[in-house]
């Protein structure tokens, strides 16, 4: 039996020295009295682990852990007004910095294994998700005349299924415009839906030696240059594999080079998917499989919204909303890492719910991850 709670053991696995450096460089603890950045960070992670719906829940939940707070590096439980004030006023960029630092840390600690694809080029999945907000309360979150929203433009690493870049904007920012701010490394492959089929964007990626696989729009105007042979035995769902170039001068001025167009039949939903890519070496079946892998980012968004507190917010300012989003993303990163190191085959939803029920249970974390439902040994009573 462990002497500290499961939650405290999870927090103990975080690289505190790295986090302290980020906090120090940000200056977020300047003129701080009591409730410092680390305390706020732990409080917000706790709110995600325990499913808190309000600042009152966070305050009362941490007060119930009296005697265990020192293991979290917190002197005392904050009041609800303190949590609300710091969420609104302490710059959320420090929590963004902590997230990226932890992404690098856990990416080095865990040996993520690539599924399905044998080639070594990094695969990145690009998409965005909309988080609806009430415009009368969140008047800064512009979307439509009657609705408010924020958008999370996310680049997901295929190997770890973790976001390596997130850009939070208001709901009016289009996907293709926001994608220009996302840095992609040369000779990686980015996979995206038709919202990113912007010819200027594709040309920007191609000029940076980035390969792309995108679903093209229905109104594309092109001429076929060469028809490539289709697979004879495998991948019978590949209908077309051809080299094309744009016909219209406006499109050709934005993307003057040739492209590869692949049409694939989707048996599950019974319709044709048409793709554009600047990769001429991979098999058409691999290109089709890459686009199918894009579904992983949809699963990531679903898990984020269903399992963590990302659809309702405990603060109304932009800073408070972004603070909650960044700490939710950090929580998802930690949960994914715990799932990865566990011997037990956890479903992420089961892991979240079971952790939520055992937040302050004192049991060895690794043993619990490996054998969560093993009953305790029977005690033998002496006659």
Topology record:
Elements: H1 6-12, H2 16-26, H3 37-50, H4 55-63, H5 80-89, H6 93-109, E1 123-133, E2 148-157, E3 162-170, H7 175-178, E4 189-192, H8 199-207, E5 211-215, E6 222-227, E7 238-246, H9 249-254, E8 259-266, E9 271-277, H10 284-293, H11 295-307, H12 318-341, H13 348-357, H14 365-370
Parallel strand pairs: 1-4, 4-5
Antiparallel strand pairs: 1-2, 2-3, 5-9, 6-7, 7-8, 8-9
Helix pairs in contact: 2-6, 3-4, 3-12, 4-5, 5-12, 6-12
Low-confidence stretches: none
Helix percent reads: 25-40%
The major beta sheet can be summarized as:
9 strands, mixed
Supply Rg: 24 Å
* Chain oligomer state: single chain
SSE order in H/E notation? HHHHHHEEEHEHEEEHEEHHHHH
Distance between the termini: 26 Å
* Rounded mean pLDDT score: 90
How would you describe this structure in keywords?
383 residues, alpha+beta, nine-stranded mixed beta sheet, 14 helices, 39% helix
